[in-house]
Amino acid sequence: LLPKTVDIVEVGPRDGLQNEKTSLSAQDKIDFIDQLSLVGFKRIEAGSFVSPKWVPQMASSDQVMRAIKRFDGKRYSALTPNLKGFDLAMQVNTQEVAIFGAASESFSQKNTNCSIKESLERFAPVAEKAKKHNIPVRGYVSCVMGCPYEGDIQIKDVVWVSKALLDMGCYEISLGDTIGVGTPLKTKALIEACLQVIPSNQLAVHFHDTYGQALANILTAIQLGISVIDSSVAGLGGCPYAKGASGNVASEDVVYMLHNMGIDTGINLEQLIQVGKSISAKLNRNNGSKVGEAAP
Ligand code: HMG
Ligand code: MG
């Protein structure tokens, strides 16, 4: 059942950098994203059109989107939680947008200042307008394995929010283990439940590696037919809501595992490792990739 190829969505420039203490200049972000393109990623989440008061690290997303090199066959996406964000994203030629909901009421409030239901009401016009512009929309669901405020989250709550986003027109749903609490058996139960209502080619997984479970969870997911994985180079990021939390699973570690299983990603691992080393140095942080640390 293992897929022959897996698409990796590199979310370091967005999910990684949005949670780093050091804010990069727009130019440094542009260089970083251009390097990620050259390494072979076909999908890069390059920014976020959200309130700069809420997430100051993403404030230069318009400059970044304007200046990054666009390569044929690659898509550069950004988060757009409302119409204001969508319109800003369109002004700078964003090729794909993402709306982001949660399976936890408390997290929805803290993250987007509204209930789950209200968030869906804000996303609907974004999805509608995106359709008119022929812009693919990705849907995220946060807290699929647990919430920093509510603890356990029921699978049925993940399933209904995911289905609501799918019905709104999202071409793909990315299941976010926001605080990295998931484990393989939980991952299996969750994905099996989601597969009842969402085809495997429209599901992606987005694991943060806080508890060191991400690779095991990813292996579980691909064994169930999932072939789109979100990760961030050097495991950039953290989580403002979970003390000591690490970022997304490191892209280098995912690519290393997949290539050694005979699964193609289109990524040049050696070059990726170098990008991970240089961005870690630039941010003055430890390299969050085990593979990156081990490599000469
Ligand atoms: P709000 O305060 O309810 O919205 O925020 P509002 O419409 O009342 O607007 C308030 C102010 O924000 C106004 O400015 C608006 O103009 C401005 P003011 O008049 O006060 O100067 N504003 C905007 N500015 C720029 N771009 C926009 C925008 N919208 C309003 N799009 C809002 C609602 C969603 C905007 C706010 O709560 C927000 O920006 N939240 C940030 C959420 C965020 O970015 N979280 C991180 C990403 S999600 C994530 O990381 C999880 C994920 O990785 C998956 C996982 O791991 O689980 C995806
Ligand atoms: Mg995330």
From TrEMBL:
Enzyme class: lyase
Gene3D superfamilies for the chain: Aldolase class I
Keyword Lyase: yes
CDD domains in UniProt: DRE_TIM_HMGL
Single GO biological process annotation from the record: ketone body biosynthetic process
Catalytic activity of the protein: (3S)-3-hydroxy-3-methylglutaryl-CoA = acetoacetate + acetyl-CoA
Name recorded for this polypeptide: hydroxymethylglutaryl-CoA lyase
Source lineage: Bacteria, Pseudomonadati, Pseudomonadota, Gammaproteobacteria, Alteromonadales
